[in-house]
């Protein structure tokens, strides 16, 4: 049986196209398989961390505020994975301008730190997310600014941190911003 050269060329071209399509499908399948395996590994890791309602905390774990050994003092561990010394957490919360309302709502003496309280995490909480993009000033910067410099911030939230030293003459711990 005789097949003209033009048909042989078309068949070879078709064969090459089919092989290319199969290779693309194979590559896609391999990529999807790797993505599935990655998701499985992340699920396995998350499951291992939360098995039976407890979490293993490394002896080398550090406080997410002061970065010293977590086990050196009483500490809190949140479901999000962040951990704080109780003293560091309370101090940070007390001094954080935007968390004053949260401090009033939270009573450490009556409330347990459970999964339902993960929103109290200083790193993950909505109040922390709301700080993104908020203008930031220290107490002394604010004192040095004149009215025209403050005008663009009128009626907008700003974050003010207290950089005064307790030995400063104008230091008043009870001042509310």
From TrEMBL:
Q: What is the protein named?
A: RING-type domain-containing protein
Compositionally biased region (Acidic residues): 165-177
Which positions fall inside the RING-type domain? 63-125
What molecular function does GO assign, one term? zinc ion binding
Residues folding into a coiled coil are none
- Keywords, sorted A to Z: Metal-binding, Zinc, Zinc-finger
Stretches the record annotates as Disordered: 158-177
Has the keyword Zinc been applied to this entry? yes
